Amino acid sequence: MNDATHANRSLHLRNGRIVLPGSVAENASLLIRDGRIAGILEQGESANARSDEVIELEGATVFPGFIDAHIHGAIGVDTMEATADDLRRVAQFLARHGVTAWLPTLVPAPAEDYRRAVRSIEQLMREQKTYPPVARALGVHYEGPFINTAQCGALRPRYFRTYAETSDIDALTSVEIDGAAHMMTVAPEIEGGIELVRELRRRGWIVAIGHTCADADTLDRACEAGAHHLTHFMNAMAPLHHRSPGPIAWGLLRDEVTCDVIADGVHSDPLMLRLVLRCKTGERVSLISDAIAPTGLADGEYNVWGET
User: What's the mean per-residue pLDDT of the chain?
Assistant: First the structure.
């Protein structure tokens, strides 16, 4: 069956838990027609629903598609080195694992590497409407280069920068497609950091705080300038301490600030994840993978950004 024929068929996912924006529908069904959700049927409503195919979920949970706003690659593909076709293969892999949209994420690198990577993302975005169903690329996420060497994580400090003038942003390649999202993770305490946040917001960029040792006063000023999100919260940040609360305590207490977390039980202990969810609530917490090129490959040794 070709993709066009499949898109024109109807599918009935019956007797599952359907996760909705404000609730979970138990013993419900999902009706799909022409590749789109046509209806959600509560218990007892699905008996007369007509469809070409019925799948019994037997209580399985149906989630909306995930959006991964922080991902560096998968299946051997690194976003810094990828062609548009490489990125398409990543998008197919993500779709098979429940991700319906993503923000290809770049690490600090020379300007030419940025330019090449963003042009591949741009080509992918121009072509992806013609593909069979894949995770849709939404734009680009620059993780750095304006971040703190003291919290470099796995990134390469030799490419970190400080901010002095608007030409420092002009040197970063943008996706030249209407509606493309542009996101940058910055450390507001670096030289020129607050002005950087202000200028990025003026240009319509989403500004997140990460790879940072900023104190509460600096974070307050960054928030006032337009930075309202925290990248991989608790990771690559000054740790929580009762005499030096830093970005973690600040982030937990600021209701207007959202955060994303890597909830794999390794990057952060499950107890800390419960604390974040208790303080921030589900409305202010999102999940990211922060996946890198070896994701989806067999166990082994891989070279990523010059390290094995």
Answer: 94
Which pLDDT tens digit goes with each residue over 176-217? 999 999 999 999 999 999 999 999 999 999 999 999 999 999
Domain membership flag for residue 293: no
**φ, ψ for residue 194 (rounded to 5)?**
-70, -40
Q: 78 and 143: one domain?
A: yes
**Shared domain check, 26 and 136:** no
Q: Quick one: what percent of the chain has pLDDT higher than 70?
A: 96
Buried b or exposed e, range 128-156, using 16+ CB within 10 angstroms: beeeeebbbbbbbbbbbbbbbeebbeebe
Half-sphere exposure for 303 (CA within 13 Å, toward CB): 2
Report the alpha-carbon distance of residue 24 to residue 47 in Å, rounded: 20
Distances (CA, A) of 4 to 7, 108, 160, 302: 5, 41, 47, 38
Residues 46 and 173 in one domain: no
Which helix (H) or strand (E) segment is 273 a member of? helix 270-280
CATH of the domain at 18: 2.30.40.10
Task: Determine how β-strand 181-186 pairs with β-strand 206-209.
Answer: parallel
Determine if the peptide bond prior to 145 is cis (ω within 30°): yes
Domain tally for the chain? Answer: 2
- Residue 263 covered by a domain: yes
- The sign of the CA dihedral 141, 147, 151, 152 is positive
pLDDT for the residue 5: 46
In a domain, residue 281? The reply is: yes
In a domain, 179, yes or no: yes
Inform me whether the pLDDT recorded for 46 exceeds 70. Answer: no
Q: Using an 8 Å Cβ cutoff, are 45 and 266 in contact?
A: no
Helix (H/G/I), strand (E/B), else coil: 101: strand
* Tokens 């007369």, residue located: 48
